[in-house]
Design a protein that fits this description.
single chain, mainly beta, 4-stranded antiparallel β-sheet, 3-stranded antiparallel β-sheet
């Protein structure tokens, strides 16, 4: 699958799959940040991604994220096919779940993204008596 992508800062690498069987690629902030206890931070991930037609880009925390005292505040991010304008840089919504400040560095692998095929539903509404019958 060919995916069109732009980097805000071209000195940071393109996202990469860590192994030949990885299903997700790593995402990193493009800035250093210190997140205070119980604080929510929205860190720029350096990328504008044009999600291919028929797919959604999902963003999840890496399994090591809670070991750092962080979680993705929205649990999973959903990037739609129309979110790729010049101001639509991916962002990582991180919450510090500890009682101490947590520092992240530019380029730290904090989250992961993966493309999932999607279909749009067509609704067939039933009357209530049809559902219980």
């Amino acid at each position: 699958m060919l995916v069109r992508i732009s980097r805000i800062d071209p000195t940071l690498p393109l996202p990469a799959y860590q192994t030949s069987v990885s299903v997700a690629f790593d995402l990193s902030p493009r800035v250093d940040a210190t997140i205070q206890p119980n604080e929510l931070a929205l860190l720029p991930a350096n990328l504008i991604v044009e999600v291919p037609q028929g797919y959604v880009l999902l963003i999840a925390g890496r399994s090591s994220l809670p070991k750092r005292g962080l979680v993705l505040a929205n649990s999973i991010g959903v990037i739609d096919q129309d979110y790729h304008g010049p101001q639509d840089e991916l962002r990582l919504q991180l919450r510090n779940i500890t009682n101490a400040p947590v520092t992240v560095k530019r380029g730290d692998r904090l989250a992961q993204g993966f493309f999932v095929p999607v279909e749009r539903a067509e609704w067939q509404e039933l009357q209530l008596e049809e559902v219980t019958a």
